[in-house]
Specification:
The protein is of the alpha+beta class. The chain has 2 domains: 140 residues, no CATH class; 85 residues, no CATH class. The protein has a 6-stranded mixed beta sheet with strand order 1-6-5-4-3-2, with helices on both faces.
Length: 253
């Protein structure tokens, strides 16, 4: 099984990437808050917690948001434990944030391998980490108040996978833009820009074709940096779209 993320990372690209970040319009948002410099849990857990809690707090059903976490928990026979955690995820209070971080630890059992699982009891964010997550979720909520509303979130690409790319799921769609959330300390790189283009091209062939046909932009939002990156689809070029469709994703037509 090869995911969109893995395929993008493994694809040799020209210097700067097929879509250099400099082609994106960058908007810097400012809430006057400086995040704490250190966090005591893995960055992937922080990123998933921010993503999932943002979705819950803008109204998406919690069981739907934590689908991968619950499936992962089921794979190691800990559904009851995961549901107990999920029952207390309903806002951005400390307990919701702690439980979201713990739930994210189950994802690996669904997305990768049970052999990589580490007991979620060991995921215990400290006060600085909890405060950072709360701030980033608030930034996500504010972001969607400005750039939303959301049309689709946490979607897969059923009908569009190939022998080369067999898994992958996207973050958010608004009426005009495909959005990818990145909670890294760094700006998006060439793998990320290729990944979001792959999502767009696969979306056009998926069960969500109607929603993707209305899009005119690709975008990233990084709530850690509080930066928005936008690129209009018409500025990508058909030659590049054809190349990525055939050589990277594996479409024949």
């Amino acid at each position: 099984m090869t995911s969109v993320t893995s395929r993008a990372k493994g694809t040799e690209q020209p210097r700067g990437g097929y879509i250099p970040l400099k082609r994106f319009k960058i908007t810097k948002l400012d809430d006057g808050i400086i995040l704490n410099p250190k966090e005591n849990i893995h960055s992937s857990s922080v990123g998933m917690a921010v993503d999932y809690l943002t979705r819950v707090n803008i109204g998406t059903d919690a069981e739907s948001v934590f689908f991968a976490s619950l499936r992962g928990a089921a794979n190691i026979h800990e559904t009851a434990e995961a549901m107990e955690l999920l029952n207390d995820v309903n806002s951005i209070d400390d307990q919701s944030i702690i439980n979201a971080c713990k739930l994210s630890g189950y994802d690996v059992c669904y997305r990768a391998s049970r052999a990589l699982y580490k007991p979620v009891e060991g995921i215990n964010p400290d006060e600085d980490t909890i405060e950072n997550i709360r701030t980033m979720v608030k930034r996500g909520i504010t972001f969607f108040e400005k750039y939303g509303p959301i049309v689709l979130d946490g979607f897969t690409f059923d009908g569009a996978y190939t022998d080369i790319v067999t898994t992958g799921d996207g973050d958010f769609l608004t009426e005009s833009t495909l959005w990818d959330f990145k909670v890294s300390v760094s700006k998006p790189n060439k793998n990320h820009t290729l990944q979001i283009l792959m999502y767009y091209l696969m979306g056009l062939r998926s069960v969500h074709k109607a929603e993707f046909e209305n899009l005119d932009s690709l975008g990233f939002f990084n709530p850690r940096l509080n930066h928005v990156y936008l690129l209009e689809v018409e500025n990508i070029g058909m030659d590049l779209i054809d190349k990525i469709s055939k050589e990277v994703i594996g479409y024949s037509d």
